[in-house]
Specification:
Blueprint lengths: L1 H65 L5 H11 L4 H11 L9 H7 L8 E14 L9 E7 L3 E6 L4 E6 H5 L6 E8 L3 E7 L4 E8 L4 E8 L11 E9 L3
Antiparallel strand pairs: 1-2, 1-3, 1-9, 3-4, 4-5, 5-6, 6-7, 7-8, 8-9
Length: 246
């Protein structure tokens, strides 16, 4: 009887061990299945994200393709037709009107867009004739004016800068050791004429006017006073130039 009971107990314990082992194996399998399902779901989500990114890129490309191309030459012409706007001002206006296009104007492109402005061009000029106007007698109260007309041997080098200025250097300045020329502000620069002007600290106004069709020009300087502290008779000098723009 005892043996029968002992055998029954062992049988129950053994079956319990098997049952416990099976449950452990099932639990591990279930956990692995859950992990695999999570990985599959994650991969699906990543695929959706990648798909969205690719879709966004395609949309961006299509938008770029459908955007009308900016014809810079036409825009420059419009700005010039509206009113005289200097080269630098035109560039700034283009940046304002087309901020999203991020227009990058290379040196070559600038020359193509503004050929008539002769930007960065240097050219020589030589004097043809000169005229000077001054008070005949500085030591009396009469206002008699005298002029002096003669040939000119002035030699000038002029460069048109990209900041709406010109730089001019005279041969006399070079002989005196100057290596940098004087700057004047461009007030007109189109297909027919170039005009630049400057006023110094002594109220001396300098102007250069050049015809782009013939190369003929005038350089003049005028001062409000013929002598220091005297403003009765302005003083002026004018030089007629022949410039070689080609």
């Amino acid at each position: 009887m005892k043996k029968i009971l002992l055998l029954s107990l062992i049988s129950i314990l053994f079956s319990g061990c098997i049952s416990g082992s099976s449950k452990t194996e099932l639990t591990e399998k279930d956990q692995r299945i859950v992990e695999l399902e999570q990985q599959i779901e994650q991969l699906k989500n990543e695929k959706v994200v990648i798909g969205n990114i690719e879709t966004d890129e395609v949309l961006s490309e299509n938008i770029e393709k459908t955007k009308p191309e900016v014809n810079l030459s036409e825009e420059v012409k419009k700005l010039q037709d509206e009113a005289y706007i200097g080269y630098y001002e035109i560039i700034e206006e283009l940046k304002i009107r087309f901020p999203e296009d991020e227009i990058i104007l290379t040196e070559v492109k600038k020359k193509q867009l503004f050929p008539e402005m002769l930007i960065w061009k240097s050219f020589p000029c030589h004097g043809v004739e000169s005229a000077t106007f001054f008070k005949k007698n500085w030591f009396d109260d009469t206002l008699e004016i005298e002029s002096d007309l003669g040939l000119s041997n002035d030699k000038i080098s002029i460069k048109i800068n990209s900041d709406d200025t010109i730089t001019f250097l005279t041969a006399a300045a070079v002989e005196n050791g100057y290596t940098e020329g004087e700057k004047s502000t461009i007030i007109a620069n189109n297909d027919v004429t170039l005009i630049a002007q400057d006023i110094d600290g002594y109220n001396v106004v300098s102007t250069i006017t050049i015809s782009k069709e013939t190369g003929l020009g005038i350089r003049q300087k005028t001062s409000a006073s013929g002598l220091p502290m005297s403003y009765k008779v302005p003083y002026g000098i004018m030089v007629y130039l022949q410039c070689y723009l080609e």
